[in-house]
Amino acid sequence: MESILLLQQEKKIVFSMLSNPLKTLTKKEWLLWLASLAAVIISNLATNDLDLLTLISALLGVTSLIFAAKGSVWAQFLMIVFCILYGIISFRFHYWGEMITYLGMTLPMAVWSAITWLQNPSEENENEVAIQTLNKKHIIGLIISTIIVTSIFYYILMWLDTPNIIFSTLSIVTSFVAASLTMLRSSYYAMGYAANDIVLIVLWVLASLENPAYIPVVVNFAIFLLNDMYGFVSWKKRELEHALIQ
Fold first, then answer.
1. For residue 223, is it within any domain?
2. In this structure, are residues 236 and 187 in contact, taking their beta carbons and an 8 Å threshold?
3. Where would one find the signal peptide in this protein (predicted)?
4. What's the CA gap between 22 and 217, in Å, rounded?
5. Structural domain includes residue 212
6. CB 3.0 to 4.6 Å from 78: which of 37, 64, 204, 241, for a disulfide?
7. Highest mean predicted confidence (pLDDT) among 13-17, 158-162, 171-175, 214-218
8. By the 8 A CB rule, do 21 and 70 touch?
9. What pLDDT score was predicted for residue 5?
10. Which of 37, 20, 15 is nearest to 118 (CA)?
11. What's the CA gap between 51 and 31, in Å, rounded?
């Protein structure tokens, strides 16, 4: 009987975590989301060579970041789709590092994060994931794993003769750290992604110098940077509120 009740309770929590995240957005968050969507659409339509795949991936990415700021597991589901689309975009420009990073690393880690977030709802609000404070074990493990992953991917990029290999390697470092912090449910996940956004802005500016069609990608990541900074502020605010309750 107890096992049945426990199973029912777990199902209730999962359903709560999967509830419509749009219902939890504040007026400020609605404004940020809609303004970001508008900026993405305008920047992509302004180019002479509209790439529908880039536009769709950017819209999904912005929405994912807004949901992530709310601690909604839907952010991870959207991130999975974004990784696939971004991997295709990177493949077309021969940014092998980006393609391998997002398809071979960020995507599976987003799946893992989705599972982890579903298993750890917040006590204050079951619609949100519980925030975890990093300990020494987490930090040491993150440093060691980052060094290993970066070393492996760097040699793969060299073998593939990847353009702008330094920035591609930096993208791997920041992507892995950001994805790991997301999986660990740390509020610093957003700072990791913000650092990755800066690297990607540089990376795609270099690509745009060869092909102006990639200018919208630069704008997209600039908007991502703004949303990631909001995500950090949002998680820190929620972390502070939880500490006051405790």
1. yes
2. yes
3. none
4. 26
5. yes
6. 64
7. 171-175
8. yes
9. 42
10. 15
11. 26
Q: Give me the residue label for tokens 């760097």.
A: 154
Maximum distance among all Cα pairs of the chain, rounded to whole angstroms: 66
Asked if residue 207 belongs to a domain, the reply is yes
Measured between its terminal Cα atoms, the distance across the chain in Å is 32
Work out how many domains the chain is built from and give that number: 1
- Return the structure tokens found at 172: 């791997």
pLDDT tens-digit map of 12-35? 455 556 777 888 889 999 999 999
State both tokens at 143.
């440093």
Task: Check whether 3 has a pLDDT greater than 80.
Answer: no
**Phi, psi dihedral angles at 228 (to 5 degrees):** -70, -35
Asked whether residue 66 is assigned to any structural domain, the reply reads: yes
Q: What's the mean per-residue pLDDT of the chain?
A: 84
Nearby residues of 112 by Cβ (< 8 Å), 6 or more positions away: 183
According to DSSP, the residues that pair with 129 across neighbouring strands are 121
Q: Give the pLDDT score at 147.
A: 93
Cβ 187 vs Cβ 235: under 8 Å = yes
Whether the CA torsion 11, 12, 17, 22 is positive or negative: it is positive
**pLDDT surpassing 80 at residue 10:** no
C-alpha to C-alpha distance for 195 and 180, rounded to whole angstroms: 14
Query: What does residue 37 show for φ and ψ, rounded to 5 degrees?
Result: -60, -45
